[in-house]
Amino acid sequence: MAEKSKTATARDGNGGTVRIAAVGDLHVNEDAQASCRDLFGEVSREADILVLTGDLTNLGRPREAEILAEDLRACAIPVVAVLGNHDYESGAVEDVTNILRQAGVHLLDGQTTEIKEVGFVGVKGFVGGFGSRMLGSFGEPAIKAMVAESVSESMRLENAMRQVRTNRTLVVLHYAPIAETVAGEPLEIFPFLGSSRLAETIDRFKVSAVVHGHAHRGVYEGRTPGGAPVYNVAMHVTKPTGRPYALLEI
Ligand SMILES: [Fe+2]
Ligand SMILES: [Fe+2]
After folding, report:
1. Which residues does the UniProt record annotate as the domain Calcineurin-like phosphoesterase (predicted)?
2. Mind listing the pLDDT tens digit for each residue in 112-146?
3. Distance 136 CA to ligand 2 centre (A)
C-alpha cells in the first residue's frame, strides 16, 4: 500500500513545483523556554519558502518580535507572513511590523509579493461568522463598525488579488475563510474565528491554495464553496507532516 503523502499538492498546471512550509500561531513570548530556531532550521531544509499565518507574538510586544527576528536568523529561505489578533494586543503593531520587516520578513497587510513565480497575497482577515449565520450590518453603531471591519478586510484582499501577475497564488490569512477548518472549536466561538466574506472574495479569483491559523483546535483541511483548497496551519493542528508545519507543493 502506498504511503500517504505528507505533502498537500495544489498544482494548477505550472512547471517548477515550489515547496512551501506553512505554520501559524507561534505566539512567541518573552518567557519562552522553547526557541523556534530549530524549527526554522528544519523548514529551511524541507521547503523553498516559509509562510507564517499570524499570532507571531503572544502579546504584540516589540521584545517578542525581536526574539522572533533573532530566531529567524536560523531560517535560510524567504519568509512571508501576516499578523494575527495577538500581534495587535499591545498597541505596538507598527513597531512589531518594522522589526519583522527589518529582519527580512515579507510581512503582508493587503499587499502581494512574488517569490519563485508564486504570488503571495496576505491580509489578516477578521471575525464575523460563516454562511447564512454571518453577522449583518444592523443595529448599534458598534455592530456596524465590526461588520465594516470584516468587509474592509475582504476588500483589501480583493484589491491585493488584483495585483497578482503570477499563475500560481497562495492566499495567506490569519482568520479562517470557511467554517470547515475551524471544526473542533466550540460552536459558540465560530463567529470569532473568521468570516465567509473572505471565501466569497477568494472564489472570485483563481487561487492555488489558502492558508490560515487562529483556530488552534480546528482541523487541517477544507475547501471554499468555489473549490479552493484551504489549510488551517495553526501549529497546534495535526498535519500530514506530523510536524507543527504543513508542506504544500504549488
Ligand atoms: Fe493563535
Ligand atoms: Fe489568533
Report:
1. 19-217
2. 999 999 999 999 999 999 999 999 999 999 999 99
3. 22
The residues facing 112 across adjacent strands are 121
Nearest residue to 92 (alpha-carbon basis) of 54, 61, 124, 59: 61
Say if pTM beats, i.e. exceeds, 0.90. Answer: yes
Distance CA 215, CA 24 (A): 10
Task: Please write the tens of the pLDDT for every residue from 88-101.
Answer: 999 999 999 999 99
**Helices and strands counted in the chain (H then E):** 5, 12
CA nearest to 132, candidates 179, 176, 174: 179
Give me ligand 1 centre to Cα 25, in Å.
4
Task: Give 216's Cβ-side CA count (13 Å radius).
Answer: 6
Please give the distance, rounded to the nearest whole angstrom, from the Cα atom of residue 14 to the centre of ligand 2. Answer: 33
- Ligand whose nearest atom lies closest to the CA of 234: 1
Describe the crossing of helices 93-102 and 62-71 by its angle, rounded to 10 degrees: 20
What ligand has the least distance to the C-alpha of 124? 2
Q: Which ligand is nearest to the CA of 89?
A: 2
Which letter does DSSP use for residue 194 in this model?
B
Which tens digit of pLDDT belongs to each residue from 1-31?
Answer: 444 577 777 655 455 899 999 999 999 999 8
The strands making up 79-82's β-sheet, listed across from edge to edge, are 7-9, 246-249, 19-23, 49-53, 79-82, 106-107
